[in-house]
Design goal:
494 residues; alpha/beta; Udp-n-acetylmuramoylalanyl-d-glutamate--2,6- Diaminopimelate Ligase, Chain: A, domain 1; UDP-N-acetylmuramoyl-L-alanine:D-glutamate ligase; Protein-Tyrosine Phosphatase, Chain A; eleven-stranded mixed beta sheet; 25 strands
Length: 494
């Protein structure tokens, strides 16, 4: 969708501000003065680290023709004064970019785990159906499969609207958006209405931000209201999903393993490189062979299938799309190597996700499970011992660092170790403690015997490790695993 521009007076009406004395044409919305282009409306947001009002002059110098402010500033452009400029940002963005969600089928996916995978599955399904997909999420945005880098799971509202406008222009038929709890709390998807919103699951995460699971759930549940969406898809094998299904006022499609669900799965059979199952939708069914592993990927596939059905895609196209899936970066990604054991990199970074992936690999492959995992700094501290406890369910638990950020890596690791060694935790698991993540990965691989599975968890697709002072060192679990496997093979062949 090309944006030719709208009048500032129409923007004022959209955000509830008094009309400006002088009118101008606005063609873009920005809250970052460094990204302002000629014709922009600059929205001055008061943040925890900076005040956008101090940057209005810079924005004007870069070409901004107007500003949204909470207090008038000395700048020679029209200014719309509002009580809360952050709240005004999404409404202004939706208006300036022409409410692009109204011209697309937009599916929003939320939940603790599985959001990225469901968007990836939807992309494949839409393609198989002959449509044009769009995606916004953790791995960036893709418009008709063309990548667009992003700096967060759900970008700021002006970026979301700009991306959706670009999708309309590119002929996208279905857009799949990951919707994080942070995005909901901070208004990044305010002002737009989804055709379908889908819920995958909920488990402990982000409690540094939400404080309690009740608050975390309530934030997610905000997406499932008639003001924000037309239909809901909810995975009800999850207890929080059952609760959500019982409270939403939206028309709902339930998903799970029970025949009482609207969309359900049966006859799940896993192998080392694929999973087969039967997908049921009402009285219809289809056999699916998916070239990915993991029962939770079957759950993700069912959520994606139900969402696709709700935007008018037929069951045969859904099966065809799932059959052509490619691995999602850092999500149960098998690292190919000439060794007699399996190595998997996964983003699992919650206690529940760690428990699930350990159980999945043990049941699927039958050998021992070795897990390499650490907890992140400057994030939910309460889940660290729980992550250690979950890791202790493996046969060998290698406990290490993740992204320590501003915290002492050894102090974070001590909290994880405390959970792994606490009274009542599985006591026959071998525990290796190594703060250096590369050496920890090496230790996990060296501990593997034929038939074992080595799970490297927590960072998934990430390509850097974050330390104090904002320093980011290159670090990709997948590349490190390949390097260490190559070294191990050389030693073994010597």
């Amino acid at each position: 969708m090309s944006v030719d521009g709208v009048t500032l007076r129409s923007v004022a009406a959209a955000i509830g501000a008094d009309p400006p004395e002088a009118d101008v044409i606005v063609s873009a919305v920005h809250h970052d003065s460094r990204r302002v282009e000629p014709g922009s409306l600059f929205v001055a947001i008061v943040g925890s680290r900076s005040d956008g009002h101090e940057l209005v002059a810079d924005a004007v110098a870069a070409g901004a023709v107007a500003a949204v402010v909470q207090r008038p500033v000395a700048a020679a452009v029209p200014q719309l004064v509002v009580v809360d400029s952050r709240a005004a940002l999404p409404r202004a963005s939706v208006h300036v970019y022409g409410n692009p969600a109204a011209h697309l089928n937009v599916v929003g996916i939320t939940g603790t785990n599985g959001k990225t995978t469901v968007t990836h599955f939807l992309e494949a399904i839409v393609t198989a159906a002959g449509g044009v997909p769009g995606v916004v999420g953790t791995l960036g945005a893709r418009i008709a499969r063309r990548p667009v880098p992003l700096d967060r799971t759900t970008p700021e509202s002006n970026t979301v609207q700009r991306l959706l406008a670009g999708m309309v222009e590119a002929g996208v038929t279905v857009a799949a958006l990951e919707v994080s709890s942070h995005a909901l709390a901070m208004g990044r998807v305010d002002g737009m209405r989804f055709d379908v919103v889908a819920f995958t699951n909920l488990s402990q995460d982000h409690l540094d931000f939400h404080h309690t699971m009740e608050e975390y759930f309530a934030t997610k549940a905000e997406l499932f209201t008639p003001e924000r969406a037309a239909k809901a898809v909810v995975y009800v094998d999850d207890l929080w999903g059952q609760r959500l299904a019982g409270m939403t006022q939206l028309p709902i499609t339930t998903v799970g393993s029970s025949t009482e669900c609207d969309v359900w799965v049966s006859h799940i059979e896993g192998a080392q490189d694929q999973t087969s199952f039967t997908l049921h939708a009402g009285a219809a069914e289809i056999a699916v062979v998916m070239p990915l592993i993991g029962r939770f990927n079957v759950a993700n596939a069912a959520v994606a299938a139900a969402s696709a059905l709700e935007v008018g895609i037929d069951l045969d196209s859904i099966g065809a799309g799932l059959a052509k899936l490619k691995p999602v970066a850092g999500r149960l990604e098998v690292i190919a190597a000439p060794v007699p054991f399996t190595v998997v990199v996964d983003y699992a970074h919650t206690p529940e996700a760690i428990t699930a992936v350990i159980g999945e690999m043990r049941s699927m492959l039958g050998g021992r499970v070795i897990v390499v995992v650490g907890a992140a700094g400057d994030r939910d501290r309460d889940k660290r011992p729980l992550m250690g406890q979950a890791a202790a369910a493996a046969d060998v638990a290698v406990l290490t660092s993740d992204n320590p950020r501003s915290e002492d890596p050894a102090a974070i690791l001590a909290q994880v170790v405390a959970g792994a060694t606490a009274t009542g935790t599985r006591s026959d698991a071998a525990c290796i403690i190594e703060v250096d993540r590369r050496r920890a990965i090496r230790a996990g691989l060296e501990a593997a015997a034929p038939g074992d599975a080595v799970l490297i968890l927590g960072k998934g697709h990430e390509t850097g490790q974050e330390f104090a002072g904002g320093r980011i060192e290159p670090f990709d679990d997948r590349e490190v695993a390949r390097d260490e496997l190559a070294a191990l093979s050389r030693v073994g062949g010597a």
